[in-house]
Amino acid sequence: MTNEKPAQRRIDQFFSGPGGRADNWRDLVDAAKAWSKGGDRAKYDAALSALAVTEEFHGYPGLHLMTALKEAAAAGDAATSHALATRIAHALQTKSFRQHAGDWSTQEESNGDVPDLLPPTLGQSAARRPYFETLIVTGLPASNWQGLAAEWRKLRRPVDAFIYEPVIVGSLEDAFCAAMLNPNIAAVVINEGFGLRSRHDAPVLRAMTGAMGLNEESDASALRLAHILNRVRPELDLYLMSNRDVEQIAGSPEADVVRRVFYSIEDILELHLSILEGVQDRFDTPFFDNLKKYAQRPIGTFHALPIARGKSVFKSDWIRDMGEFYGLNLFLAESSATTGGLDSMLEPTGNIKKAQEKAARALGADRVFFVTNGTSTSNKMAVQALLAPGDIAIVDRNCHKSHHYGMVLAGAQPLYVEAFPMTEYSMYGAVPLKTIKQALLNAKADGRLDRVKMIDLTNCTFDGHIYNTRRVMEECLAIKPDLIFLWDEAWFGFARFSPFLRRRTAMGAANEIEAWMRDPKSVAAYEKQQAELGKNPSDEVLLKARLIPDPRQIRLRVYQTNSTHKSMSAIRQGSMLAVKDIEFHTVEAQFKEAVFTHASTSPNQQLIASLDVSRRQMELEGYGLVANAMEIAFAIRNAVNTNALISRYFRVLGADAMVPSEYRQSGFTDYLAAGTNWASALKSLNDDEFCLDPTRMTLVCGTAGYDGTQFKGLLASRYNIQVNKTSRNSVLIQSNINNSRSDVAHLVRVLAEISGEIDRGLAKGGANAKVDFDVRVNSLMKDVPDLPNFSHFHQSYRGDAGTKTNEGDIRSGFYSAYDAGGCEYLRLNDPEIDRRLKSGPDLVSANFVIPYPPGFPIMVPGQVITQETIDFMRKLDVKEIHGYDATEGLKLVKTEALARMGKPRAAAPKLKAAS
């Protein structure tokens, strides 16, 4: 994250993840190689000294091998140093140490005599045993740690389903650093008697612990550490070892973060078995496990799914290639049955229900619903279940179309609010909190606040803008304490597994608010602010204040949808809907009806299994995978923006370009800015109204003469690089848990090649080529259309609207399009459009019009079309515009049809339920 090399030697530089560790080992091998060939030994000593500090927090190579490295260096043995460093680096790179006992030996080939390291059975069993590491926090002196590790290793048995290596530390700070630096840690054993301070340099960490009130050795209590670790890595199993009154500790509410409390003098085998059982609990995948068993049973299928068991495929001369491509298990696991070990998605009572409960635990929710036809369906289910006809919902106008269609389904009235514009890049950001609060205050002034039921926002946006979710919910709850929040986190599901980003997720913020509500200080904070605000504060005062809700009045109701397939290892269309709603019992019946309406009665078994498995993966290794995805993103940003050739034509926008300064109260500018470290990023994540998701990178290509659609096509057709979203002059690049450093190298190589071609073309083409290039760049970067805001619903669709709010009956507008005789078409460049914009009557859209890009509705049913919307459409050079046929033109509601809207009319037809 920082360009300052020396800072990486400190233990509190947590943005240097798995790739950074690999780089450090590679540097050590290079230094050892140079020394073995007569080079400078001092460089090797310096590299080893720097590396040894953070390697204390990893199980491999561990104390034994690190001691061997140090002894070889002290003896001046360059050859042994080079050989051993090379073997360790290779084992780390290939992860072979997890299965091969020889990697733990100081000898070139293991002789099997390594009883104090890993048992010789490692790597020799028929079944592969997953490997993890357990953090042991102890008050014993460091001189005893090697013996303590040996005692732990003696507990291993060949029948154990997993194998783990102890990592031993002696202070709270070191325990915190180990949890942050080592993604292999899956469990923590906390003994009493450890110290507070690390033995190493950690100035940023000191500032943080000071802010947390950890200043004295007495602050380093076992429960205090347990709460700290639970906050940063809630997926870890925590075990407390005490020689005091364990019954009293176990019965304390503060011990709820601990999986089990042990009396320290009792048999340690029970603790060992508990550690294995805890990991097994996360490893179990109820639906996937049963699906595997089902596939191995000899089953006769007399139901309507011919492809089940694969006989119709593998016995065919014509489609056998599909079976050979996908493999037999795919077909053996297919079934339309919901019995015999399987379960029903519509009425889960067995393994799907258990799988969803595990997913709820993983996401920090009260309950989770699996959805097999995408987050579009998750959004519509939530909107339909939570809103009724006539309810008002404050909605980001730029949200995914599924929310708009959900309003149509529910008959709810959207009150659209606008995000801040980023006109230069033809995209919108997110909706400022002041805008949302103003909408609520306007509804209150109109006497309509009781009808405002929901706030519906996208977090993070397609382009990476992240809300301060806690602040948004708290300030809105201060105005209306029973609001429902629907956060569309389709692109942000992975964030739960990053301690830096978790606080910005819906569930992360909801859990923090819930904890705050239980704190007696919350009532005092509320009452103090009320005294300061006075009895009847003006809207201006309320908009400026950081409002504190009354914790006694809050009804916490939070819903979060995430496209599991977009950021985790789920098959396409796999989605989860997470719920933390104290009033869920009041909407459970209609929620079930929404599931019945939208969910298929024939869900894909493989898709359900992938949701189950993706939860397992993220609970057991999500922390490291997300850290790596962030590190990949930093590597891309750095490679593009610092390369002399590439940066002439391309650049990745920093937070300072993506988030206006008024929303970056901390002053944070970019992840790669000089002097930036994890602490300054954390301050931004805590304080700023909007942050930028580090894994989402807006790559400006307009400065290279390419529009976004053209550049996306070039990357795909010529270089086999796929990107998702484009704007007029940019493409969106995102890193995920699937990416590697090789992917970075490929992208950088491609950008360098394209930049070189532009360079050569301009050099060969002379002055005219340069003029043409500048004109093209100017048209893409300067001559950009203004972004249209939502205007208003036509008065015919606002029969019961207030005076200060702009909500409308979108459902009636939607069904106006069903009356062919009541609609007309006008081509985009027809002079009649300009005449009517100037003199009337109003142009009223009969449907949604959604250009891709930018991918949000610039017109919705019943909306009055304005000049800025027409100007924007006329400047668009994209080919894909949903809801608009260029040959026919804009579909409009006729003036006479609008006039009839105010008269008694037949009820609009109801939408039919999906089959």
UniProtKB/TrEMBL annotation:
Source species, domain of life: Bacteria
Keywords: Aminotransferase, Transferase
One Pfam family from the record: OKR_DC_1
Cofactor(s) this protein cannot do without: pyridoxal 5'-phosphate
Orn/Lys/Arg decarboxylases family 1 pyridoxal-P attachment site domain ranges (all copies): 285-514, 557-734
Name the UniProt record assigns to this protein: Decarboxylase
Organism: Bradyrhizobium jicamae
